[in-house]
Specification:
By secondary structure, the protein is mostly helical. The protein has helices spanning 8-12, 25-39, 46-80, 94-103, 108-116.
């Protein structure tokens, strides 16, 4: 997170964007865009898109829109295919990641199977 100039507080307040002083208006709008895109895409009107383009420009808006769409699609694919994904953010190394996954009822064999799964 630090490499992208994000603090722990920035991460922790994603769900409370309007009451957190650490975000700029452009960042609040980007978070709102992500939420609307995922949960109520018909609520994205031209005035909102104009404001987003003012913040980010046309090219970045295309990139952002495609990225959000891909992450939504990946989440739905995982849900449909019943793929369990564990992605702890505060791991110091592979041993801690393995411990966390095993703590969620996954064995090393399950983890290796997920890595090597191929769908026909």
């Amino acid at each position: 997170m630090a490499q992208h100039d994000l603090s722990e507080d920035d991460y922790l307040h994603v769900g409370d964007r309007d009451n957190y002083d650490g975000y700029s208006q452009a960042e609040r709008d980007a978070l709102e865009y992500c939420e609307k895109y995922a949960t109520d895409h018909l609520a994205i009107d031209q005035a909102f898109m104009d404001r987003m383009v003012d913040h980010y420009g046309d090219e970045l808006m295309v990139d952002m829109t495609l990225s959000i769409g891909c992450w939504i699609a990946f989440g739905r694919i995982n849900q449909v295919m019943d793929v369990s994904v564990s992605c702890p953010l505060r791991m110091k190394g592979p041993e801690e990641a393995l411990e966390a996954m095993e703590g969620n009822g996954q064995s090393e064999d399950d983890i290796l199977a997920m890595r090597s799964a191929r769908f026909a």
